[in-house]
Amino acid sequence: MDKFEFDGIICERFVLGPLEVNSYLVYDPATPEGIIIDPADGSRELIDRIIEKKWQKNVIFLTHGHADHILGVDRVKAAVNASVLCSVEDAPMLTSSVLNLSEMLGFGFTVSPADVLLKDGDTLSLGKHTARILGIPGHTPGGIALCFQQMVFSGDTLFAGSIGRSDFPRGDGKLLIETIRSKLLTLPDMTVFPGHGPETTISRERKTNPWLEHALFS
Cα(104)–Cα(192) distance, rounded to whole angstroms? Predict the structure, then answer.
């Protein structure tokens, strides 16, 4: 587990499952609530940590609906009484093994429907802090990012030195690039926590991401 702190908000990163998904716990130590981002396979570690924190309110925020990012949803939801937040567009993926690609991976499964449907421009509070929801489609039709003042959780849209795949069903490569350019690269410099791999920064990706060189100057 890796731990970061920005403006009084703690972010803990857990790398879970065979696809090494970054699952995150985000919380303000002064407030008895937490945000669980993309609970993946092997979520027992997450659950133990949440129980240890004794939060009174737990929400699961899903950056998108692919199987590797939702595998732990039901287990975490039941263990810590969490509500599930997902975009309107990706919500059908939670209840379809075809849409969430688990059928394609050979172990088809579904999870509980989302409790709250989100869209671009919505907000999510965490104590005295407020995060914006950014619609970032392309990797999936309804990918969303969670953006605090100094950090953004980008799911599988933007990685350190790379971008998300768009060759899966319902992916859109052109839209993915347009989304990154208009929604993420225009943010003030902040730390980016992606769905896989190490953290990065907006300024670093503007300057050095080879997949975005054309996007920067077109």
Answer: 29
